[in-house]
Amino acid sequence: MVAMNGSEKAVGSRSNKGVMFRKGQKVPYSFITERSSHARIVSIPDEGQCLDTVQMNLLEQSFRDWADGAPRADVRLSRRRILLIFLLIRYTGAKLSEVLALNPFQDVDFRHHLVFLGGTEKKNGRLRREVQIPKVLAEEIESSLDDPSFKEYLGSLFKVDPGHVRRKFYERASDCGFPPAMGAPEIIRKSRAVELMQSNVPLPVVQRMLGHSTLNVTASYVAFSDDDIRQVAKYFIEKESRRKTSARNSFFGKILSIRKGDIQAKVEMITAGGDFVTTVITNDSLSKLGLKKGSLITAEVKAPWVILQKSDKEPESTAENRFFGTIMRINRGKITTEYVVRILDGTELCSVVSTENARQIGFQENDQVWVIFNTFAVVLHID
Fold first, then answer.
1. What pTM was computed for the model?
2. Helix or strand holding residue 338 (H, E)
3. I need a labelling partner for 309 at 20 to 30 A (CA). Which of 88, 212, 316, 381 fits?
4. 226-242 helix and 135-146 helix, angle to the nearest 10 degrees
């Protein structure tokens, strides 16, 4: 169900990433350089050292062809085990040691599509973590484990020599025409993190999936329970798997408050990354959507309605939605030009302007800008 703004009025974000910048306050340069690199926050030194989604898919297909092309039954079982190890690293971002320690018969929740990493005991003050995987992968793993011959073969579970696994990973990378080192489990783990971030999965969710401790306790963690984070992860993982929408200007969050008026209602939400988004919709839409405090919703805005402004200070504007970020990519066409801006939590927002206008404003990659969109641009969705 969708709440279209039409004649409805919406109110946008009143702050930027849990860190509140007052009007006229200059954004500290140290904050920008330390926090604007989403990749750096999760210990990824350079996206150029990772495989992109197309390359990851090629590597996956190479593993599948290799496993299916085994000449003998015993070799086929051995290769299928390596394939599952690869798929688990590829879709959970886990370390090789974590996957090899898994008991796939006990550590995978096929009903809820979860993989539990880190064993069952609390270690170093941390409980095991759960990672959402695509439904199709959960079904594939379950189907493999239901095979009596494969189940018997896995009597020793995933206890494989790590060196043997690495050699097979290097071989598959070479088969794809990549340098062997690009097939290392660590590279696949890093590549998965970059892939998740490019899919706009909120930083706290990526951190939790990879087992990183958070840098600080933001407003989002005050508002989001473990169950909420689980639902956010499931939403983005399944959305990534389906690839049914091209909308990138999407904020997924939880309703903090609803204040009803005589005709319209004010709905305030917080994203898993800590952004605040406030909208005003009709009471009729509020009822149809069944919104209530604590509901998880999506707020989207179309790219042509997103405005960019270059300023060290938060701009004076009637548009309540204002986020500070860095231009990551510029796609120039004959008629229109597209800017992709990464805001402070790593979310990428897209703005489209005429190419003639783009030449006049002269924005370049790595320029720091404010992303602005007015209240009428917001659309609310529930899934």
1. 0.54
2. strand 336-343
3. 381
4. 90
